[in-house]
Write a structure and sequence with these properties.
Helix content is 49%, strand content 11%. By secondary structure, it is of the alpha/beta class. The chain starts with 11 loop residues before the first strand and ends in a 17-residue tail after the last helix.
Length: 311
């Protein structure tokens, strides 16, 4: 059995950017015995989150967070991070030996190079979780994967911090960070868009409780996909029901035209994957791909248009 990473010394913790992520991670570190000492935030929502998750921790400017803390969490939007790091380094706020941790999925540790040159110890710890900005986030970190990137000499320390927060470290190479983050966005961010759009369309169709209708279906679909990958594909595209897909497109054009482009894009991708993995029979694909090519062919129905969408 592999030995656990060494337990880090008890550290003073600061948070720069009291969005949804930073206060939750600091609260998790506090449960592990570390001591939050400073947090910075600007918006009213940030201040409320800090007060709820880190009660009694003083709110100070970013430079003062670095002045007070041995471990600093930089939990700001991706596009803000490079400028923030550069500014902190140029103003002398970074101290030698200070652990500087960012939580961006996009970046590895290279974005922290200005601070590293000033003596900071750079870590990239990205929690693979969606955050609400409430105490439930601390509980959700239990078993949550973290994408970890760090210099080799800091790898054990990075993994130990993740484990202390209840997470599971997963090593991501510096050059793989953008692809890793794109994969997560495809799976999680766009899932929310698809589900919200589906609920909206069900309401338009007269369904009173679309969340209750979708819950069991989406839960089963997710479980099947995680277990079986492309073999779990079902529905009219995977079956090659061109008439049903054409009817879908026609109805969407009538009731929700803004959703047509997304439907067609996902249907084409699904058809490609279904064909490649033998789920969609080649002899059924031609008519289906024709419908998807022009987005309107067969909209007046045809074979399969009234078929059972659950078979």
């Amino acid at each position: 059995m592999n030995a656990s990473p060494p337990r880090p010394a008890r550290l003073t913790v600061g948070v720069v950017g009291a969005g949804r992520v930073g206060p939750a991670l600091a609260a998790s570190l506090q449960l592990a015995g570390h001591r939050p000492v400073a947090v910075s935030g600007v918006s009213d929502a940030s201040l409320r989150r800090a007060a709820e998750l880190l009660p009694g921790v003083p709110l100070v400017p970013p430079a003062q967070v670095l002045e007070r803390a041995e471990l600093v969490l930089l939990t700001v939007p991706d596009d803000v991070l490079p400028g923030l790091v550069q500014g902190l380094a140029e103003t002398g706020a970074v101290r030698p030996g200070q652990l500087l941790v960012h939580t961006s999925g996009r970046y590895g540790t290279a974005v922290l190079d200005p601070a590293r040159r000033a003596g900071a110890l750079p870590l990239a710890l990205h929690p693979v979780m969606t955050f609400t900005g409430t105490p439930v986030d601390v509980q959700r970190l239990a078993g949550c994967s973290f994408g970890v990137t760090a210099p080799e000499e800091l790898r054990l320390a990075a993994e130990a911090l993740v484990i202390e927060m209840g997470g599971e470290p997963e090593w991501i190479a510096e050059e793989a960070r953008p692809l890793y983050h794109a994969a997560l966005a495809l799976g999680a961010n766009y899932l929310v868009t698809l589900v919200a759009q589906s609920m909206e369309l069900l309401r338009t169709a007269g369904v009173g409780a679309p969340d209750r209708m979708l819950g069991p279906l989406l839960g089963a679909a997710l479980d099947n996909a995680l277990r079986s990958g492309d073999a779990a594909l079902t529905g009219p595209v995977a079956r090659g029901d061109a008439g049903t897909v054409a009817a879908h497109v026609a109805e969407l054009r009538k009731h929700a035209p803004a959703s047509v482009a997304g439907y067609l894009a996902m249907a084409r991708t699904t058809a490609d994957r279904a064909l490649a993995h033998g789920v969609l029979k080649a002899e059924l694909a031609e008519d289906l791909l024709g419908v998807l090519a022009d987005g309107s062919a067969g909209a007046d129905g045809g074979p399969g248009a009234e078929g059972d969408s659950n078979r």
